[in-house]
Design goal:
Layout: E1 4-9, H1 15-24, E2 28-33, E3 36-41, H2 44-52, E4 60-67, H3 71-79, E5 95-100, H4 107-126, E6 140-145, E7 148-154, H5 176-185, E8 193-196, H6 203-213, H7 234-246, E9 254-259, H8 262-275, E10 281-285, E11 298-301, H9 309-325, E12 334-338, H10 343-347, E13 353-359, E14 362-369
Parallel strand pairs: 5-6, 8-9, 8-11, 9-10, 11-12
Antiparallel strand pairs: 1-3, 1-4, 2-3, 4-7, 6-7, 12-14, 13-14
Helix pairs in contact: 2-7, 3-4, 5-6
Bound molecules: S-adenosylmethionine.
Length: 371
């Protein structure tokens, strides 16, 4: 397996950030589509991508791509994949996936056909009729979009946003992968100072510390593919060694987090301790109305946004206060993510740049003030 094709889904709007990350770790021949980046690498790319990519949701191996408008075409397309190179006699190989704008729209039917094709292929290769599926779990995934089928192996398991540091979260934490993308757009460097006046569980503070100190976001967790028989163990050992060697221990980075809620402050401290970046982060209970900008700091935050009308009005009041206490400038840039269409009107200043991002299913904008 000198050359394998990998596919990483990401938040809509972060494709360019992820592409940059992929090129940095040696991925090549990138194909970028909405919410996904495909690329090539050798087998060691599986461990590097899982450990090092901050904005990818998972890392899939692309087994096959073909068109299918009938179950027979789907069956034959899957049966022609050399699955025996990936799945041993005892491995479990569950199938899941999705279909959009395609003739083959029934997901349960597609799932059953793909499973049947896999069984037929492996039966003929292994000369057995029954698969006990008690070994490693090789999760197969399919995507059918406008009749184009892609069959993947998921190498990640639990999504990559689970870094291993946030066992506990507050009510509305931002996803770690989205936070990492925003941090990239905010150009955090080894000597940056970051503040988050609505720090909640501390995601922006911790992800900024990772970026500034060059700490691989996956260093504290395991990945599904570590149990795959067809992947040599040494690629994990070597990639982890490289990640440890790459950490910038002399980074001058500092971060300050504030929140009105004492439990959130405790949570931020606890999570930053679990993430191993506690020494870089200072947190304190404070209301935004008392906020005083930290000298030469980059402010990054996702202020509250209510779902009910009363909460939305309260959020709008907070945006007005933010407009009064933040003083965005080239020396004190501010990056604020909000789904509120009128955010700038309440904040009282038009953003220098905006970027559409999705926080889960919620359409948001990243309002960037850097002049
Ligand atoms: C959307 S959450 C931020 C989530 C955070 N980014 C995270 O990843 O966990 C908004 C936070 O603002 C805090 N908050 C609400 N009103 C505030 C105020 N007036 N001053 C400071 N913090 C406030 C809430 O306690 C909550 O933790």
């Amino acid at each position: 397996m000198n050359k394998i094709k990998l596919s990483c889904p990401c938040h809509f709007g972060l494709e360019s950030v992820l592409s940059y990350e992929i090129k940095k770790i040696g991925g090549y021949d990138l194909e970028v589509t909405d919410g996904r980046v495909n690329f090539y690498g050798d087998i060691s790319m599986i461990s590097k991508a899982n450990l090092m990519l901050a904005t990818a949701e998972r890392v899939n191996i692309v087994l096959a791509e073909f068109r299918a408008t009938s179950f027979e075409e789907l069956f034959q397309g899957v049966k022609s994949i050399p699955l025996e190179n990936y799945i041993s006699k005892k491995d479990a190989f569950p199938v899941k996936g999705h279909s959009l704008n395609s003739k083959l729209h029934s997901v349960p039917d597609c799932q059953a056909i793909i499973k049947k094709a896999c069984v037929e292929r492996l039966k003929s290769k292994y000369n057995i009729t029954w698969f006990e599926e008690t070994g490693s779990k090789i999760q197969l995934q399919f995507s059918i979009m406008k009749d184009n089928v892609a069959i993947f192996i998921d190498t990640t398991g639990v999504g990559l946003h689970k870094r291993g540091y946030r066992k506990n979260a507050n009510d509305a934490p931002i996803k770690e992968t989205l936070a990492a993308g925003i941090i990239d757009l905010a150009r955090i460097r080894h000597d940056s100072v970051v503040t988050d006046p609505f720090c909640g569980s501390g995601t922006f503070l911790i992800e900024s510390a990772f970026k500034a100190c060059n700490i691989a976001p996956g260093l504290k967790r395991k990945f599904a593919a570590e149990a795959f028989g067809f992947i040599p163990q040494n690629i994990w050992v070597e990639a982890r060694q490289q990640c440890l060697a790459d950490i910038d221990k002399n980074a001058q980075f500092k971060a300050f987090g504030f929140d009105i809620d004492a439990d959130s402050i405790e949570l931020s401290a606890d999570n930053s301790r679990k993430a191993g970046v506690f020494s870089k982060i200072t947190v304190a209970k404070a209301n935004i109305s008392e906020y005083e900008p930290v000298e030469n700091a980059i402010t990054i935050c996702n202020p509250p946004y209510g779902e009910r009308m009363l909460e939305i009005r309260q959020a709008e009041e907070l945006y007005k206060i933010m407009g009064q206490v933040f003083s965005p400038s080239a020396k004190n840039p501010c990056y604020i993510i909000s789904p509120h269409e009128e955010f700038e009107a309440f904040f009282g200043k038009k953003a220098d740049k905006r970027r559409k991002l999705y926080n889960g299913m919620i359409k948001c904008q990243l309002f960037m003030y850097f002049k």
